[in-house]
Design a protein that fits this description.
The protein is mainly beta. The protein has two domains: about 80 residues, Aspartate carbamoyltransferase regulatory subunit, N-terminal domain (Alpha-Beta Plaits, 2-Layer Sandwich); about 35 residues, no CATH class. It contains three helices and eight strands; from the N terminus they run E-H-E-E-H-E-E-E-H-E-E. It has a five-stranded antiparallel sheet, with no helix packed on it. Strands 6-7-8 form a three-stranded antiparallel sheet, with helices on one face. The longest helix is centred in the N-terminal third of the chain and has 7 residues. Keywords: Metal-binding, Pyrimidine biosynthesis, Transferase, Zinc. One of its GO terms (biological process) is pyrimidine nucleotide biosynthetic process. Pfam families: PyrI, PyrI_C. GO terms for molecular function: metal ion binding; transferase activity.
């Protein structure tokens, strides 16, 4: 297997093993339209195993979403074949348009066009609640 280096783009490292496809889904990155490499279940000194996502070209990665989906991930920005910046996503206080409310009576469920918005209630339990009906998000 040969995975070449990227010249310009990003590397999302320390993604929990086996979750890189879910991470791409949450980040709204279409693998069929994006030049990328997935390295799944590789050895990690820190976590035992991990996934790595390499994305060629400039992609705006929503670090809030990444912090929600893969909090321990790191993002390396690559320019000219060299890592020029390292970013660490944080658990976001608010999430918009990522998860859906499970309450069938919530206004976001019954009315089209209303953005699904959630706020962090408890960071240790990763508990988010709907801004409109206060229903707990099912992750």
């Amino acid at each position: 297997m040969e995975v070449t280096s990227i010249v310009n783009g990003i590397i999302i490292d320390h993604v929990p093993a086996g979750t890189s496809l879910k991470v791409l889904e949450y980040l709204k990155i279409d693998p069929s339209k994006t030049k990328l490499a997935l390295i799944m279940n590789t050895t990690s000194k820190r976590y035992g195993s991990k996934d790595i996502i390499k994305i060629e070209d400039d992609k705006d990665i929503d670090l809030d979403v990444l912090g929600f989906v893969a909090r321990q991930a790191t993002v390396d920005v690559v320019r000219g074949g060299t890592i020029v910046e390292k970013k660490q996503p944080n658990l976001p206080e608010h999430i918009v348009g990522v998860i859906k409310c499970v309450n069938p009576r919530c206004v976001t469920t019954t009315e089209p066009g209303i953005k699904q918005m959630f706020h962090l209630v408890h960071s240790e339990r990763l508990e988010y609640r709907c801004d409109y009906c206060d229903e707990e998000a099912k992750l």
